Amino acid sequence: MQTHTGSTQAPAAAHGHLNTPFLMVDKPKFIDNLIRLRSLIAPFGVALRPHFKTIRAIEAAAYVLPDASSPVTVSTLREAEALAEAGYRNITYAVGISAAKLPRVGALIEQGVTLTVLLDSPEQVQAVNDYCAAHRCTIPALIEIDCDGHRGGILPEDPRLIELARLLADGPAQFQGVLLHAGESYRCYRRQGLQEAADNEVATALRARNALAARQIPCPVVSVGSTPTAFSYRQLEGVTEVRAGVYSFFDLVMANIGVCELEDIALSVVATVIGHNRDKGWVLVDAGWMALSADRGTARAPVDYGYGQVANAGGAVMAGMQVLSANQEHGIIGRVDGHPLCFEDFPIGSRVRILPNHACATAAMHDQYQVFDGLHGTHEVWHRIKGW
Amino acid sequence: MQTHTGSTQAPAAAHGHLNTPFLMVDKPKFIDNLIRLRSLIAPFGVALRPHFKTIRAIEAAAYVLPDASSPVTVSTLREAEALAEAGYRNITYAVGISAAKLPRVGALIEQGVTLTVLLDSPEQVQAVNDYCAAHRCTIPALIEIDCDGHRGGILPEDPRLIELARLLADGPAQFQGVLLHAGESYRCYRRQGLQEAADNEVATALRARNALAARQIPCPVVSVGSTPTAFSYRQLEGVTEVRAGVYSFFDLVMANIGVCELEDIALSVVATVIGHNRDKGWVLVDAGWMALSADRGTARAPVDYGYGQVANAGGAVMAGMQVLSANQEHGIIGRVDGHPLCFEDFPIGSRVRILPNHACATAAMHDQYQVFDGLHGTHEVWHRIKGW
Q1: Is B348 on the interface with A (CB under 8 A)?
Q2: What is the ipTM of this complex?
Q3: What residues of chain A, 67 to 126, have a C-beta less than 8 Å from chain B?
Q4: Where would a tag sit more exposed on chain A, N or C end, judged by fewer CB atoms within 10 A?
Q5: Architecture of domain B51-244
Q6: Which CATH superfamily is domain B262-383 in?
Q7: CA A138/CA B286 separation, integer angstroms
């Protein structure tokens, strides 16, 4: 992991004019995180198709996507529409398609976007084929493969894989290949488990590709990915692309999994101290779940960070200090390491930063990112794409 | 509780043109809920100061607030600014004030809004007094009283109550009175516990008021409230106003507490079935925590509803069906009552409605409400006020 010096941090004075709570991005850390995964995947000779679901801000796209033809993954058609408007042309919508959304898919394809959809049922294949036939268009489609029982997808040995691929390949839609997501890797907290999850993701993908090859069905795309496995591949022979999203910001879940350090986390919520409860050892801040999200993704992790790890206004992690509980607009901060809390470190009106359990969830609570670059002394605002 | 017939529900066909997931309000239920609390509080002869934090939509304000002078509570200055722009003039900002926010408070007061702030520390009193002195204005302030150790506030017997009230009363700010919130009542699941929490809230408020009276400090405002206690007061002698928010929509937390029935819940997320996993008994829908929120407010309640209770597209509750888990854009629905799931009830492409654990949290994930009135056949869109 890269080493950050205090100098990448925006000084507290740089954001004093912004009312709290707000969402802060440490831009040098964000860019370091992007470079780190890109450098890790490049030697494998496969494409990186970053997942835009974490960031969802067009101002950030240029950092994540080298050019207009760069592959990108989205979790909503709204993201795809915003990226298309910004000129991006190679987009995979990685949530199972429904018939009612096909007119929006069709509109993007008509604009010249390669918008690839995902599916795993005959009903979805039928809907896509029917839409293509009715509108004389070609929608590329991937079949979702289940590698770990996490949510959707079909097993590589399931005969439905061949049936669906044939229905697509023979129909007006276009069969593009297979897509897997090792969602269960989020529960791996050791290097060995991560490598096994990564190996399994790749091996399952190849079993699907080989099953198709045995029936002479070409499978140009073999797409795998999740942030935990993206940092754990030992080989990617036969895979064509890797997807990952949360690595751009990182978070406390990923720190638990071991693919980043607390110092790599580029996202935080800045909050103001609005009260003390000396009897209980509580500092009250003006960031509750509305600013932090209600995500308790570290609840069953080796280190449970409550509703977030506390850092000081300059970004330095304050060991043992967490958000113990969160109401809508109140967070209660306290120590979890048995030491007494020093209230003088948290005067009323002073600011703290809260590192998120889950960057995707915390970012989703905000309309804007306040992006600071302490190295260059810059401040910019990125705007979240909202909705579906 | 009122009885709803199926006829208040918008038929599924009424929303077929909207892409899922989206947030739906059943307007007749919403209005019934508003009437129910108003009717319950009116006989006590105290004001109802609805909390706008749940709804946060100006289009809804006219239903909640009879006229421009109606009292209203907010959780953010952004709500106060939007309400002021819409003409409302009597607003209490019920989150501890910080010095950095006072220019926005001052701007509202200059516009003629009675914007009352909340505080519980000498630093906050000093900041408000200093601001008033520097800007020759008068900011009304309430002192937060702690009635149940939930988060902030000071105890009524704490000598700081008198000190702070004196500093306000003698300074350029204006001491208005005391405010309490029985936050711990959210953990009461029996009528007796709720009544005790309500009694305690009122009794604690009166102890604070009496402590002030004993020092000849007038206390014109005695503000209490939370949705659980608002439905449980036995007497309100000496109280001047009641605050509550979530009662307007109700949710599964409130159903657990016993202040509403599932049929009273006016808010739901409409989702589309995008997959089946017959081996696991799972139906996958396109609403994950991004649409539902990650709030697990019923986790320790008598009935744990997972990430939400499933209803059919017409709004009828499907007993035993819950959202078992939620990823960003995927929800996994299944049975929790041991019965086998009938997949024919959930064809791919069909719709379900998910009742929320916590209406405030679920609504916060959306920019808009799709508001249907099945009785009058109308559909309108309300826009959420976002941010702080």
Answers
A1: yes
A2: 0.95
A3: 75-77, 95-101, 104, 120-121, 123-124
A4: N
A5: Alpha-Beta Barrel (3.20)
A6: D-serine dehydratase-like domain (2.40.37.20)
A7: 24
